[in-house]
Each structure stands twice: as C-alpha cells, then as structure tokens.
Specification:
By secondary structure, the chain is α/β, with parallel strands linked by helices. Helices cover 32% and strands 25% of the residues. It contains eight helices and eleven strands. The chain has a six-stranded mixed sheet, with helices on both faces. A five-stranded parallel sheet has the order 2-1-9-10-11. α6 links the parallel β9 and β10.
C-alpha cells in the first residue's frame, strides 16, 4: 500500500480545535484521529473512605465523578496525573489539589510528598497499569476502584499515513498486533510506557518531549522533516 504523504494518524478522537490538529494543519499535514479502544462504564457501589482521590485520565474523572452515588466529602482532596486530567476535574466543578507532570514516575515522586501515609483512592480502567500506585507502594494506603472498561477494538482499518502517533500502550498494542508497519512509516509515542509497548513489537518510536498534544505534534513535524 502507498503511504499518504505529509499525513499523521493519532490514536485518540480529536476535537476540531485540538492543539494537535491546529499545529499540523498550519504546516499542511493531514490529520486523522480515532481511538482504537472501546470504553464503557463499570457500575460501582459504595465509595471507600479516602483522604485523596487520584485520577489517571480525563476518562476516569468523567466515569467516576459523573456516576457517584453520593457527593464526595469536601475534606477529600483530588489529584491528577497531569494538566489535561486536572482540567477534566475542574470541568466537572471540582477543585484540584495536586497536578502531576503527566509522566507516572515524576508524578509519583511528587505525589508521595503530598500524600505520604494517607488513604488514596484510584478510580481506574479495568486494564489499568496502576503506574503511580505501584511506584508509591507502601508510602500510601491505596485502594483501586474500577469505573470503566477499556478493550481494544475488534476491527479497524489499516492506516497509511507517514506518521502513526500512539497515545497509550493499549492503543499501540491494538494496532501493532494487527498490522505491520509499512516501509517509510514512523511511530511517535506519548510516553515511556507507550514507547515500551512499541518496542515489544520490535519498533523504535520517536518519544514526545512531553505527554501533551503540542509535543506530539512537534514530534510528528520532526519525523516529517527527515522525509
């Protein structure tokens, strides 16, 4: 199959005014965005008592805060892995007490100081990597609660852009387990866990400098600059 010149695919559903789309549009790069993961809510009952609720993603925010059986105590503080997740908390009408960098390791180190010895509830996907929980270990008293299911799509079309951008390990695995990378195609990973997922299939991606859409767009432009 022939590559679509100066084009990029990203494994998330993009808004019309997304930063990723706007930057690449300005450089004449065609953009397609579609998640390769299906999501659905998982009902949950009583919420365990906690000093903190820590969110890994905007989706976890929506599935948890949007389906609470009763309001959270005002004494419970809310934390997020990064700015986009913090914005999702704010959009739901709550205040954010801690915002990480978007990278699990640096976020866990900073959150350890804020939540040392305290009870932390982690609303998460059924297939969550639990990256912050695992790194913190016994520093906190952690409890996970599954609030949504995330499964790879069973069927999706082959993409032929010059650059494939993967925004999570599960998205990378969903694509790479189904299709071979075409000659001339390049990969971009949003962070180290996603890069590791690419490497498990023998593919070395370009690693974005930060886990946000601006950095992902710049990584795409870097790839295309060497075409």
């Amino acid at each position: 199959m022939k590559l679509q010149r100066r084009s990029a695919y990203i494994s998330r559903n993009l808004q019309a005014q997304s930063t990723f789309r706007l930057i690449l549009d300005a450089h004449g790069v065609g953009v397609e965005g579609q998640s390769l993961i299906h999501f659905k809510p998982v009902p949950f009952g009583m919420v365990p008592d906690a000093d903190w609720v820590f969110f890994y993603s905007p989706r976890a925010v929506r599935f948890f805060l949007g389906n609470l059986p009763h309001p959270l105590s005002p004494e419970v503080r809310l934390g997020s892995i990064g700015p986009s997740t913090a914005q999702a908390v704010t959009d739901m009408g709550y205040k954010v007490a801690f915002t990480g960098t978007g990278e699990p390791e640096t976020t866990a180190d900073a959150f350890a100081e804020a939540a040392n010895g305290q009870r932390v509830l982690f609303p998460q996907a059924r297939h969550s990597r639990q990256s912050v929980q695992k790194k913190l270990g016994s520093i906190i008293k952690s409890t996970g609660i599954i609030v949504y299911d995330n499964r790879p799509a069973a069927d999706f079309p082959l993409r032929c852009p010059e650059v494939l951008v993967f925004t999570s390990p599960l998205n990378a695995k969903a694509y790479l387990s189904r299709y071979e990378i075409l000659p001339g195609q390049q990969l971009v990973a949003i962070g180290n866990p996603t890069a590791s997922a690419c490497r498990s299939f023998g593919k070395e991606p370009v690693l974005a400098s930060a886990p946000n859409e601006e950095a992902l767009a710049q990584a795409v432009l870097h790839c295309l600059a060497g075409e």
